[in-house]
TrEMBL record:
CDD domains: PDI_b'_family. Belongs to the protein disulfide isomerase family. One of its GO terms (biological process) is response to endoplasmic reticulum stress. This is ERP27 protein. GO terms for cellular component: endoplasmic reticulum.
Length: 142
């Protein structure tokens, strides 16, 4: 995950198939997966039921700092929510924006989606902060 090595302690007596599977699932994806035509199938077939999308302009000068904060928040929900980046500049992502009824003037925005029942919520942002992402996710989880 993001060039950071994680090790599972195999010397522990309580390691079983379920714990190994959980370890692999939690660490097989990047903290933030960029949504595009190549990754779309993997995102949709993910075992995660909750997807949090940051819909933003990757060309913005604020993008690197937004992504830094978004990754920090992703670490807090690792194994619970799949964090996804949607570049608003890609023509192929226009459908995603329209699904959440968002216009470019409302970006950046967070959109959370629960796949089994298609429940969703959207939050437009002035700026991405770890606290705002965390609060938004916690409210939806409750």
């Amino acid at each position: 995950v993001d060039n950071d090595r994680k090790d599972l302690d195999m010397n522990s007596n309580d390691v079983d198939a379920e714990k190994i599977t959980r370890f692999v699932r939690m660490n097989e994806l990047r903290l933030v997966t960029e949504y595009n035509p190549v990754t779309a199938i993997g995102v949709m077939q993910s075992s995660f039921e909750l997807h949090l999308l940051l819909i933003t302009d990757k060309m913005s000068p604020k993008h690197p700092e937004r992504m830094r904060r978004y990754r920090v928040a992703a670490e807090l929900f690792k194994g619970k929510i799949l964090f996804i980046l949607v570049d608003s500049n890609l023509k192929s992502n226009e459908r995603t924006m329209s699904f959440f009824q968002l216009k470019k003037s409302q970006l950046p925005a967070l959109a959370i989606f629960h796949t089994p029942d298609e429940e969703q919520d959207v939050l437009t942002l002035d700026e991405v902060s770890v606290e705002r992402v965390q609060d938004f996710c916690n409210r939806f989880l409750q």
